[in-house]
Each structure stands twice: as C-alpha cells, then as structure tokens.
What we know:
Blueprint: E1 4-10, E2 13-18, E3 23-28, H1 42-64, E4 73-81, E5 86-96, H2 102-113, H3 116-120, E6 126-133
Parallel strand pairs: 5-6
Antiparallel strand pairs: 1-2, 2-3, 4-5
Helix pairs in contact: 1-2
Amino acid sequence: MVKMTVEYLGNLNIKSTHEPSKSILKTAAPIDNNGDGSSFSPTDLLANATLNCMITIMGISANTHNYSIEGTTGSVEKHMEANPRRVGKLVININVPQNLSEKETELVWASARNCPVMNSLSSDLEIDLNITFIKKTFELRAM
C-alpha cells in the first residue's frame, strides 16, 4: 500500500504528496475545463502514467532477460471525449534505440502491453501503441 495526500490550493490547483518519498506533484485544471493550464491536469497524469508504466515494465523485462533499453524515449497524445467528458484515446509512441534480437523485441512488445496501468484502464479507452526499434550505427572516419 502506498498513501498519497492532496491539498486543494484554490483556483482548480492541487498539491499532491507521495507519503513514502515526500515528493510533491501539482496539478491544474486545463484551460478547456475552466482552469489555467499551468501544470499537468489529472487526465494528463493518466496519459503520462500509462507511458511511464509501459517503459518501466519494459525496463524490468530487459533487466530480467539481460538486455538493455537504455535511452528509450516516448511520447503520448491524449484525446478527450465530450459526453461524458473522459479520455477517449491515447496515441503512444516509444522509440527503443537498441539493436535487439527478435525474442527481445517480442518481450518489449509483451511487457509494454501488459503494464499495470494498462491493465487498470477501461476497455473503452482506445490505445494506439507504436514501438519503433532504432538500430544505431556509427561511422568511423580516418583522421
């Protein structure tokens, strides 16, 4: 169990504290929902948590199976629905800069699709997941 506490700061802004680490996170309502958009919104955090969870679970798999995904990057686009107001779609792009074997590539895909956040989301939420495996090459020039 992990406990988090929140404090309403007014003007649709909230301060959250992660009790075990004492880390602080602030959220604000988005401009299109009566807020000032000065920080992540709660639905932004949902989208970001999904991407972060995927990459974390990919990293756990890489550590377990002795390969690397170091340098992996990603982005997530959140698309809202109006009625009811909710997150309707996430477009997730992940770039893995390692030259992985076919088995390692399959492990990356499986781990990304089975992270705990993904498993907690409604099946009504559309998720467009794209993982690109980038093979880095280096050119050596004689000096």
